Amino acid sequence: MVEKYRQQYGSGLEAQTYLGQNYFTVDRSLIPDFLKLLRDEEQFDYCVDVTAVHYPKREKQFDVVWILYSFPRNERIRVKTQIADGGSLPSCVAIWSTANWLERELFDMFGVRFDGHPDLKRILLPEDWKGYPLRKDYDILQQDQEWVQINLGIESGQ
């Protein structure tokens, strides 16, 4: 599978294995096509998770990772790409409906936007919450104290 797609996508795709786990690092521009290909041709029929890692000192601050599973193959694979803060990715809700709430969680916790998402809004936090709590540069204590004071009228226990 790796050789087949490396020939097709060239330098826009790298394949690696780390601790027995296979993953592709893919250029952002290839994401929707490559994910569809994995679903349609390689039978990765379930999107287990979509998550991110924040690296605030990098130019492209986010690694966005799709964890996919193939029931017919009994195999798991990860697909990773990088985007800059304020950048966006195409939504994969049309590929796997399970991505709907997963993409909303990434938006809520990291601020990653997904173009074409059917209902991209906060899923865990109130709409007026400031910032994105899973970013490494987020000051949770300040936000907690401010939100508790405004919404509950008490001092935070932090």
Mind explaining what this structure looks like?
The chain is an alpha/beta fold. It folds into 2 domains: 2-124, Beta Polymerase, domain 2 (2-Layer Sandwich), CATH 3.30.460; 126-158, no CATH class. Helices cover 27% and strands 28% of the residues. The longest helix has 13 residues, at 140-152. It is elongated, with a radius of gyration of 18 Å.
**SSE order in H/E notation?**
HEEHEEEEHEH
CATH fold call of the largest domain: Beta Polymerase, domain 2
Instruction: Just give the CATH class of the largest domain.
Output: Alpha Beta
Looking across the biggest beta sheet, what order are the strands in? 1-2-5-4-3
Question: Residue-averaged pLDDT, rounded?
Answer: 91
Superfamily (CATH H level) name of the largest domain? NADH:ubiquinone oxidoreductase Nqo5 subunit
> Helix tally?
4
Number of strands: 7
Give the count of structural domains: 2
User: Class by helix and strand content?
Assistant: alpha/beta
Named CATH architecture of the largest domain: 2-Layer Sandwich
Computed over alpha carbons, the radius of gyration is 18 Å
Strand content: 25-35%
Contiguous uncertain segments of 5+ residues: none
CA(first)-CA(last) distance: 51 Å
What overall geometry do the principal axes of the alpha carbons give? Answer: elongated
Helix content: 25-40%
- Biggest sheet details: 5 strands, mixed
